[in-house]
Design goal:
By secondary structure, the chain is α+β, with helices and mostly antiparallel strands. The chain has eleven helices and ten strands. It has two domains: 87 residues; 221 residues, Bira Bifunctional Protein, Domain 2 (BirA Bifunctional Protein, domain 2). Strands 1-5-6-10-9-8-7 form a seven-stranded mixed sheet, with helices on both faces. A three-stranded antiparallel sheet has the order 2-4-3. The structure holds 3,4-dihydroxyphenylalanine (DAH). 3,4-dihydroxyphenylalanine binds next to strand 8, strand 9 and strand 10.
């Protein structure tokens, strides 16, 4: 009887070695471990033995059963694993690979917000070229041949009369050349200056230009529009001021300062950009009747606006393409 038991165990282990796929494994299970399987039968024989033989036979049968089921489980695991590796078995309940979802750059987001705010105030959007003529960038804006801003140290010239625009104000000229008042536009875009790069300077940055031309336009329109913009963009409590200034293309001119909390909660005035009433010489340059029409304009730095709004202290962060920074917006 005991020999028979041992034979069953040996047969089982030998058969298991020949099993190479899951269906053969199932056949094996039925043959040995199923309800009528050889191992199951072996165990049921013990009950029929005379009392004194039971302990020894029981021990042996149990040992054999454990060996065979252990080997069976092991075989099953290896077969399952190798099937998974060859992709035959797909677990549809496993979570998929995460897809990296992109988003717009913080400057693009800021720009969209600006265009949205000015859109609601009735401004259309205008664009101009980044490679610009001297006439549009300077001459038509009442900046004579001797104006210091024309200095090659302050501009990227392409040839004597062509340069990368150093501000978005030439878009004012292009719009006035191609359309008649009433004009109410904002013009966003890149501008270029050979500045030494540091926390607040870049050789390329963005500006938002605005131009309004119509009959009877006054500085009050400019002031209320700028105030409405600042309160929408930075919050209704934000304090700001005009500071008298000079630009060749506006008269009078002002700079717009915001009172903002800096580090340690200390408030300070920060310059956002320039503005003013369009100089009659600019109207003359584009053939708009300066007796009939008045207008106002501004040019704000978009990086500056974003830096103040989000508490960013280094302009270089915008352009380094570090996703740890960009992901925050
Ligand atoms: N273009 C000027 C600059 O880049 C900013 C500016 C000032 C724009 C006054 C304007 C303005 O439209 O009216 O420094």
């Amino acid at each position: 009887m005991l020999e028979q038991f041992e034979k069953t165990g040996e047969d089982a282990l030998a058969d298991l070695k020949k099993v190479t796929d899951l269906s053969a494994l199932e056949e094996f299970r039925i043959k040995y471990l199923g309800r009528k399987g050889r191992i199951t039968q072996m165990l049921s024989q013990i009950g029929k033995l005379p009392r004194e033989q039971k302990p020894q036979a029981g021990q042996l049968a149990n040992k054999i059963k454990n060996e065979v089921t252990g080997a069976f489980e092991q075989r099953k695991n290896t077969l399952l694993q190798s099937q998974q590796q060859t992709g035959e078995l797909i677990d549809v309940t496993l979570p998929g690979k995460p897809v990296n979802i992109g988003k717009t750059h913080v400057i693009t987001q800021t720009l969209s917000e600006l265009l949205e705010i000015f859109g609601r105030m009735g401004f259309a959007v205008a664009y101009g070229p980044e490679v610009e003529s001297e006439w549009h960038n300077f001459g038509a804006l009442n900046m004579g041949p001797e104006h210091p801003s024309r200095d090659p140290f302050d501009c990227f010239y392409i040839d004597d009369n062509v340069l990368l625009r150093s501000h978005t104000s030439p878009v004012q000229i292009r719009v006035m050349e191609s359309s008649k008042p009433p004009i109410r536009i904002v013009a966003p875009g890149r501008v270029y200056r050979p500045d030494t790069v540091d926390a607040t300077h870049m050789y390329m940055f963005h500006q938002l230009e605005a131009l309004v031309v119509d009959e009877g336009v006054s500085m009050v329109d400019m002031k209320t529009t700028i105030e409405q913009f600042i309160h929408t963009f930075f919050g209704p409590e934000t304090k700001w001021r005009f500071r008298p200034s000079f630009f060749p293309f506006t008269e009078p001119s002002a700079e717009v300062d915001l009172l903002l909390k800096g580090k340690k909660g200390k408030e300070s005035w920060v310059e956002m950009g320039g503005c003013g009433m369009v100089d009659p010489n600019v109207f003359d340059a584009v053939g708009i009747d300066s007796e009939k029409y008045t207008g106002w304009a501004f040019g704000f730095g978009i990086e500056r606006l974003a830096m103040r709004k989000y508490g960013i202290t280094d302009i270089r962060l915008f352009f380094e393409n570090d996703l740890r920074f960009l992901d925050q917006f």
